[in-house]
Amino acid sequence: MSSDRPDLDLPDKDRRDADRPDTGRPDTDRPDTDHPDTGRPVRRGLDRIELRGLRARGRHGVLPAERELGQEFVVDVSLGLDTAPAAADDDLSRTVDYGSLASRLVAVVEGEPVALIETLAERLAAVCLQDATVTEVEVTVHKPSAPVPHPFTDVAVKIRRIRP
Asked: Residue ranges of the Dihydroneopterin aldolase/epimerase domain (predicted)?
C-alpha cells in the first residue's frame, strides 16, 4: 500500500535522508558504518591525532642573536584523518606513526633556520601532509623565549592547512 508521501515508502535510512536538502557536498554527518556491538548506524566525522608540546632547539628568528644562540621552540600538531581503517585492523601501517612524525618535525625545527615562525609552521605542516592518510593539519609553533621587551607568557603562530 502506497502513501501520499513518496518518502514514507522508502526504507528507514532513505526516509531520513529524503528531508535533507541536497547541497551538492558530501554529507559527513551521514551514517557511514554500523556499530560493531549494536549494529546501529554510526556517524563518522574527521578523527584527530594530536601531538602536543614537542620541544626542539632551533635557530629561527629575525635577530642575529636568535640565529647565533638558538632557542627552544614548542610545536603542537593536530592531524585530521580517518582512523577507522587502522582501528578495524589494529594496524599501525594504516594510520600515522606519531613517533616517526615527531622525529621528522624535530628535524625541521633543528634544521635550516628561517626568519619567521610563520615559515617554520608552513614547513611543519608540509611534513604532516606528506602522510597520505592526513587530510588536514593544524600546526602551532610556540616561541616562548621570543625577544619581546615586556613580560609575556608565549608567542605562537597557528595555521591550518587542508589537502586539496
From this structure: 49-161
CA-CA distance, 18 to 10, in Å (whole number)? 9
Residues of the chain with CATH 3.30.1130.10: 47-162
* Radius of gyration for the chain, computed over Cα atoms and rounded to the nearest angstrom: 23
CATH match for 47-162 among 3.10.110.10, 3.20.20.70, 3.90.1150.10, 3.30.1130.10: 3.30.1130.10
- The whole-angstrom separation of Cα 84 and Cα 141 is 29
Contact by Cβ (8 Å): 134, 100? no
Known catalytic residues?
A: 143
Q: At what angle do helices 98-110 and 117-129 cross, to 10 degrees?
A: 150
Q: What is the pLDDT of residues 117-164, one digit of tens each?
A: 999 999 999 999 999 999 999 999 999 999 999 999 999 999 999 998
